[in-house]
Amino acid sequence: MSEAGSIVILTGAGISAESGIATFRGPGGLWEGHRVEDVCTPQALARDAALVHRFYDLRRAALATVVPNAAHRALARLEAAWPGALLIVTQNVDDLHERAGATRLLHMHGALDSALCAACGARQPWRGSLPPGSRCGACDAPALRPDIVFFGEIPYQMALIEAALARADLFVSIGTSGAVYPAAGFVELARHFGAQTLELNLERSAGSRSFDETRLGPASELVPAWVESLLAQTRFHSG
Asked: Per the count of CB atoms within 10 A, which of 29, 32, 93, 103 is most buried?
């Protein structure tokens, strides 16, 4: 894409893995020692709130030990320089995109640095531990929970994401497994509306065959190279 069209970028665990945040599943992954059903479902929260809150407290604390990598910084640079529409949709719950400088960003699976009131639906920034029974700043109910989309819950901002995909000239997927829906279906939706599609990943995902092009390698190498190439093409055609 040589002109400043509309870009939608989906990022997954692979982009943060090089910052030291463990990927979703696999050896040494975040879920090691915990079944997903024990820490990431509404039923788990109802059954053992202390365990669920403690699990996300540890993940929140771990954010202080990591920093954005070259891939996060490159996307923030692209956002700042891109004259057309651009939206970063992340499946990640860390804040590395924000710390790198990205602002045109949606967290479809929630965010560790946010607390959600189960009583009134209000959200508030949250750092540190979040014990069960923490009170909502809006309604004072002792009902704050991690602002995380659990399995079985609907991801956030889906209408906005689908509208952006319908307008996109280019859809790029970075560091995703292609196995978790609805995000795994974004490439097909973008293709349906005529977008070019590109996958940047450490290895081929479950949905690789749906992309026009797949480039394999570490995100910290692939993403800066792609951003530089894209911006260079745009400068050439606008000059």
From this structure: 93
Provide the phi-psi class of 97: left if phi over 0, else alpha when psi is between -120 and 50, else beta.
alpha
Element (H, E) at 43: helix 42-47
pTM: 0.92
Q: Given 72, 109, 192, 237, which residue is catalytic?
A: 109
Question: Does the pLDDT at position 41 exceed 60?
Answer: yes
* CA distance linking residue 89 with residue 106, whole number of Å: 5
Tell me the CA distances in angstroms from 93 to 14, 37, 98, 113, 211, one per residue in order. 13, 18, 11, 8, 25
**How many whole angstroms separate alpha carbon 122 and alpha carbon 127?**
16
Q: Would residue 97 show up in a list of annotated catalytic residues for this protein?
A: no
Q: What is the DSSP letter of 92?
A: -
* HSE-up of residue 147 (Cα within 13 Å, Cβ side): 21
